[in-house]
Amino acid sequence: MDDRSMSMSSLEDALVALGPRLAFPAEPELAGRVRTQIESARVPARRRMPSWRPAFAVATILVATTAALLVFSPTTREAVADWIGLDGVRITFGDEPKARPAEKLAEGLALGDRVTLEEAAARMEFEIEVLGALGDPDEVYVVEDDPPGGRVALVYEAAEGLPRADQTGVGALFSQFRATYEDVTEKKVLGAGGTLEIVEVAGARGYWLGGGPHSIAYLDAEGEVRTDQVRLAGNTLLWQRDGIVFRLETALSRDAAIELAESAR
Amino acid sequence: MEGRPLDEAELIERARGGDALAYEELVVTYQGIAFRTAYVVCGDAADAQEAAQAGFVKAYYALDRFRSGHPFRPWLLKIVANEARNKRRSAGRRIGLELRLAEGRPRDDAAPSPEDAALTKERDEELIAALNTLREEDRMVVACRFFLGLSEAETAAALSIAKGTVKSRLSRALTKLRGRLMQTATEAEVLDG
C-alpha cells in the first residue's frame, strides 16, 4: 500500500463525517398524526380532550400540564436542542445573535408584500386568523412561496395595553404559516438570556420564548437555511392548529400573550 | 443517540395501559430515526413518512408483545423498516436509496474557507460515487451503520438480516469502497502526470 491508500479507520471516519453532508429529506412530525390515528380508532367513550400528563422532563423529553411549567437553565437547554416538536418547528439554542433592530413599524422586518387582509386571504391557501382581542390588523404582509404554502404576518401597532416591543417596533406581530413535513422547519436560536417554557394555548401545546433576543432562521424542505429572513423577535409565543404554525411576538407578559393568542379566530 | 429518555420503560408501561400521550412522547423521541431508517430502506420520502407513521401505529398495538426491559429502538425500527419494505415492494420500486450531497453547507457548520470547502466537496463526491457503485444491500448496511448511527443489532433488525450478515456485508462494502477510492486516486495521478 502506498501513502495515498486509505486505511479502514480513515475510511470509516470519512463515512461518519459524510453523513451530515448527505441530502436527506426533512423529517416529518409524526407524533400528532400517530396520536390522531390511535385515538380515532378508539371507542368514543374514552376521554376526548386529553389533558397533558404530569411532566417527566428528562433529557429530550418534555411534557406539559396546563400553563407554563418548565424554564430551562442554559445547561438544560443544550440537552433540549434539536428536539422540540411543534409541527415543523424546531428550537435550538446557540450564541446570542447580533442585534439588528427594526427601524420602525414593520420596516426592516422582511415580512413580504404589503397587502390588505382580503387580498392576503385570497392569496393564502389557508384561512388566516386575526387576534379577536385586537380586531383587524394595522398592516398585513404576505410571502407566497417562502416558505412553501406561504406566510402571512399581521402587524398591530402599539396601543394602550399593547406596549411596543423593542425588537419589532410594533405592538404585536402575528405570523402564520403552513408547516408540515414537506414544508418548513423553523429554527429558533436563543441568546444566552433566553428562556423557554412549555405552555398551553387554547388546548394545544405551545412554546413561550422569552428573555433575551433570539434570531429566527428557516430550514426549508431541503434542509437549507434561509438566512434572508433572519431578524430579532421579542417575547414570542408559538403554537399550532390544523397544520398551521402561529407565532405571536409582543412585549407582553407570558399570560397576557397567551390570552391574546387565545382570542385568535 | 436519539436522546433516549431515562424513563422510557415507564413511558412504555403507560402506553401499554392505553395512555396515548405517553406513547406520543416515545414517537417524538424516535420519529427522526424511524423516518430516516424507513427512507434508507425504501428510498422515497413520502413512502418513508407513511411507513414510519404506520410503523408507530402498529408498534402501539403490538406493545403487549414487546418484552419489558429490552431496548425499544431496535424493536420499533424493525417494525418501521418492515413497513418501508412493503411500501417499496408495492410501489414496485427497483431503485432504492441513492445518495447525494446536500446543497449548500450543512446546518450548524462553521463556515470553512472556500479552498477547504471545495476540497471537502470533492472528497465527498468521490466517496458518494464510490458508495453508489456498491450493491444496494451493502449500501444500506453502510447507511444504517454510518449515516443513521444504528448499532449492529439495530441494523440487523432494520434490514431483517442476521448480525453476522451485517458484519460480512459491511466488511465487503468497506473493502470495495477502499478499492474504488484508490483507483480514483491512481486515475487522478495518471491524469495529472
Helix and strand content put the structural class of chain A at alpha+beta
* Anisotropy-based shape of chain B: elongated
N-to-C CA distance of chain B: 46 Å
Number of strands of chain A: 13
Number of helices of chain A: 5
Radius of gyration of chain B: 19 Å
Terminal Cα span of chain A: 70 Å
Beta strand % of chain B: under 5%
Uncertain regions spanning at least 5 consecutive residues of chain A: 1-5, 43-104, 180-192, 215-232
Largest sheet of chain A: 8 strands, antiparallel
The share of residues in helices of chain A is 10-25%
Q: Return the average pLDDT of chain A rounded to an integer.
A: 64
Order of helices and strands of chain B: HHHHHHHH
Structural class of chain B: mainly alpha
Walk me through the structure:
- The complex is a heterodimer of chains A (265) and B (193).
- Chain A has 265 residues and is of the alpha+beta class.
- Helix content of chain A is 16%, strand content 27%.
- Chain A contains five helices and 13 strands.
- Chain A has helices at residues 8-18, 31-40, 74-80, 117-123, 254-261, and strands spanning 89-93, 113-115, 139-143, 151-156, 172-178, 185-190, 194-201, 204-211, 214-219, 225-226, 232-233, 235-241, 244-250.
- In chain A, a hairpin with a 7-residue loop joins strand 3 (139-143) and strand 4 (151-156).
- Chain B is mainly alpha-helical and 193 residues long.
- Chain B has helices spanning 8-16, 20-42, 45-61, 72-91, 114-132, 136-147, 152-159, 163-192.
- Chain B starts with 7 loop residues before the first helix and ends with a helix.
